[in-house]
Amino acid sequence: MDYTEVLTRYTANFVDELVQSGLTDVVISPGSRSTPLAMTMTEHPNMNQWVIIDERSAAFFALGLAKKKNRAVAIVCTSGTAAANYYPAIVEAHYGRVPLVVLTADRPHELRDVGAPQSIEQIGLYGYYAKWFHEMALPEGDSKMLEYARSKASRAVNTALDGNAGPVHLNFPLREPLIPDFTVTNLWGLQDDKAYYPVFNGERRLHSDQLNQLIQKLQSHQRGLIVCGPQLDKEFAEAVVQLAASWQVPILADPLSQVRSGQHHKDQVIEGYDAILRNDLIRKQLKPDFIIRFGAMPVSKAYLFYVKEHCEIPQYIVESEASYREPAGNRTEFIYADPELLCNDLAAANITFDGKWLEKWQSMNQVAKKHLLEQDDSDMLTEGDATRVLMEAIPDESSLYVGNSMSIRDVDTFFMTTPKRINILANRGANGIDGMVSSGLGAASTGDPVTLLLGDLSFFHDSNGLLAAKQYKLNITILLVNNNGGGIFSFLPQVNYQDHFEALFGTPMDVNFQHIVEMYGGNYADVNSDSELRDALQSSYESQGLSVIEVKTDRTVNMEWHRSKWQAIESELLN
């Protein structure tokens, strides 16, 4: 067997095993050393390929696709700094629990550390952020080595998905020649539609003794609080609202919890809690007896202040797998169990709490919603208005991908409960502004309707990601809120230091984004009122391809407008 056949069979068995193990999407960036992997993946009949030129964009595209599908996605690149450009997305995937299978091609061992071009130290390149790293053996063609290749492929997919999902990294040293021969017989090897390492995961549920112990602790209290942070399980909402109804307790639902939207009952869902909890006196009035939190920490900083100030109360954090996501630093009891099953078990316990406590939260929530949804007489379209109009216009059975900084905070504030089934996604693992366009387009590559809401800095930072929309004719609506810089800093203490504020934090760009959009073949609209935005959104949802709708706002006016809303809520709640 010559080297080309060895290379071909080794790579083909690896790629086929990825598919057998459930991985069917790969995002490839062009390069020479990765030729065997790239060509073989393109040749496989059951592998979907996306070719994204820039590696940073490619990795975020894969991240958005993996989030939307809730499945592992592979990324493939050549050797050298190409692999380093994956780093930001891999960090996000680690903290955001997104399953990525990272496949980096490398120079063979004899070309490392000798000054060969495009050769860097790729062993353990991603360090702590990879759940598992493996340096693949040089290709060999005997049966044991083909089984070895399959075993590593299957383990990679399983490890990326198992427990708290995340990225895994396999490094492939490859010698020239690099072109595989797809005419070899039995190219894909074993074809039994069975993974090399089948995995069966059982349900995680509290034992009856543990459940009874938890129930006894809760029964001694009257004012309970359920908090739902970011999570992606679409079945969770129905279970948690049934638990809240059984207990008669409020649910503070983060916009990324998937609890604010859908067909389930929402009588106990408090979506205005961020505005309610901004006042320290109100936070003291609303001291709970216990908190049960499902999912990650909510976006709301006011909620963070709330739990820090009530650090002495019992707090329970429910995670489906072992984890310690408790940034407040409070003493906490962790419950590692399937959240849906736990809700069902607790609801069956027939515990009831103080109904007046729930009524107080519901009354305050109505006050908050009244002021937040109140429209001003001014013709100016504020950032909050833009978010409100978007949530009214967004189609049922679609996804909203939300950028960080002001965008996610405005969604937290102005996204009210709705019977629409809206899947809310965001990159809240590391909370960066990088890669947002690519992530949104990765989600859009599934074919489902996707709207991306983000600011001008995020859009600029990843504008080259728009090439994927042109290249693959992806349908996406991007609502671009342009406050000419870093709007979030206007709400932070840095705004008080005007000598340095604009240069270091405001960072105005004065960029005409219409030219960028049109360069990538997109449709562009500039809107100035609620009605114009509503019409532009409706038009975008009825058209094909890339649509970018820009809303220009003023950072200072936006800050004052938000604060006036919060002050009106605070004033009514305290009177």
UniProtKB/TrEMBL annotation:
Residues 438-551 form the Thiamine pyrophosphate enzyme TPP-binding domain. Residues 219-402 form the Menaquinone biosynthesis protein MenD middle domain. Residues 13-123 form the Thiamine pyrophosphate enzyme N-terminal TPP-binding domain. The keyword Transit peptide does not apply. One of its GO terms (biological process) is menaquinone biosynthetic process. Pathway: Quinol/quinone metabolism; menaquinone biosynthesis; Quinol/quinone metabolism; 1,4-dihydroxy-2-naphthoate biosynthesis; 1,4-dihydroxy-2-naphthoate from chorismate: step 2/7. Gene3D superfamilies: 3.40.50.970, TPP-binding domain. Its cofactor is Mg(2+); Mn(2+); thiamine diphosphate. SUPFAM superfamilies: DHS-like NAD/FAD-binding domain (SSF52467), Thiamin diphosphate-binding fold (THDP-binding) (SSF52518). Its EC number is 2.2.1.9. CDD domains: TPP_PYR_MenD (cd07037), TPP_SHCHC_synthase (cd02009). It catalyses: isochorismate + 2-oxoglutarate + H(+) = 5-enolpyruvoyl-6-hydroxy-2-succinyl-cyclohex-3-ene-1-carboxylate + CO2. GO terms for molecular function: 2-succinyl-5-enolpyruvyl-6-hydroxy-3-cyclohexene-1-carboxylic-acid synthase activity; magnesium ion binding; manganese ion binding; thiamine pyrophosphate binding. Binds 1 thiamine pyrophosphate per subunit. Keywords: Magnesium, Manganese, Menaquinone biosynthesis, Metal-binding, Thiamine pyrophosphate, Transferase. It is an enzyme of class 2 (transferase). Pfam families: TPP_enzyme_C, TPP_enzyme_M_2, TPP_enzyme_N. InterPro entries: DHS-like_NAD/FAD-binding_dom, MenaQ_synth_MenD, MenD_middle, THDP-binding, Thiamin_PyroP_enz_TPP-bd_dom, TPP_enzyme_TPP-bd. Catalyzes the thiamine diphosphate-dependent decarboxylation of 2-oxoglutarate and the subsequent addition of the resulting succinic semialdehyde-thiamine pyrophosphate anion to isochorismate to yield 2-succinyl-5-enolpyruvyl-6-hydroxy-3-cyclohexene-1-carboxylate (SEPHCHC). Belongs to the TPP enzyme family. MenD subfamily. Homodimer. This is 2-succinyl-5-enolpyruvyl-6-hydroxy-3-cyclohexene-1-carboxylate synthase. The lineage of its organism: Bacteria, Bacillati, Bacillota, Bacilli, Bacillales.
